[in-house]
Amino acid sequence: MTDIRVAVLGAAGRMGTQTCAAVEAADGLELVARVEAGDDVAQALRDARADVAVDFTVPAVTEANVHAALDAGAHVVVGTTGWDDASRGRVAEHLERLDADQGARLGVLIAPNFGLSAVLAMTFAAKAARYFESAEVVELHHPDKVDAPSGTARHTAAAIARARADAGLGPMPDATDSGWEARGADVDGVRVHAVRLRGLVAHEEILFGNAGEQLVIRQDSFDRASFMPGVILAVREVVRRPGLTVGLENVLDLS
Ligand SMILES: NC(=O)C1=CN([C@@H]2O[C@H](COP(=O)(O)OP(=O)(O)OC[C@H]3O[C@@H](n4cnc5c(N)ncnc54)[C@H](OP(=O)(O)O)[C@@H]3O)[C@@H](O)[C@H]2O)C=CC1
Ligand SMILES: O=C(O)C1=N[C@H](C(=O)O)C[C@H](O)C1
Questions:
Q1: Contact 231, 14 (CB under 8 A)
Q2: Rounded to two decimals, what is the model's pTM?
């Protein structure tokens, strides 16, 4: 079998650097391009004949990078944050259009978090959500992170909200008036709090409460090495998964 040719977008960044090293060390993968800010993404991918582009850039450019990669005929693995229903919808349409017009069976895998502890924490939280009156999410990160709340926290809160709605649960008890910033962001009715602290990498706590009891689910990524097995798995999977996949839980068969 021939190697999967991988290009890394955002190659000089914190995640990009580790991803390049992980791809170089992985059996059956070949690192063929390191793409950085200012490069023409589509041209770089065509020149390198990349099969898969891995995007660890910034929220402002990640969607444009994915469209450029698809136009260059590459599958895409996305770790960058900043996605919403509208941007994911445009990528799904792009994939369908390519398939219909050119028979291109390309895949895009967007994962808010590649760490196993985070994926499991999100899965467990979604399962627990229906059994508790209250739920809140606290994410804690290094202070160089440019967005808040984290993509992982948004994904977690959205899954909790879906599980609550499916179970017929209404709004959570909360007597605070509107407009209190200290209550955090409202993600589909679930409060999300963001801590930025030197020394941290990426951490999340999901708190559930009932009268007289509490459940806390916590995960810690102490090192970006924790994301690499998931990134490599995603690269191997995306080439045989046409269409849009959101969340590594689908690849791990946890959904
Ligand atoms: N899914 C997951 O498991 C994880 C996701 N992330 C997410 O990944 C993203 C990157 O995080 P991190 O590595 O810490 O951030 P960094 O800021 O360290 O890296 C981002 C890199 O992208 C580069 N860049 C900016 N614009 C472009 C462009 N148009 N084309 C190519 N490269 C570009 C930047 O270059 P320059 O500095 O020159 O602008 C920089 O080198 C964030 O959204 C973060 O939340 C992070 C960890 C895990
Ligand atoms: O910026 C980071 O560092 C991280 N970003 C992702 C997110 O926003 O969820 C994943 C992880 O939390 C690390």
A1: no
A2: 0.97
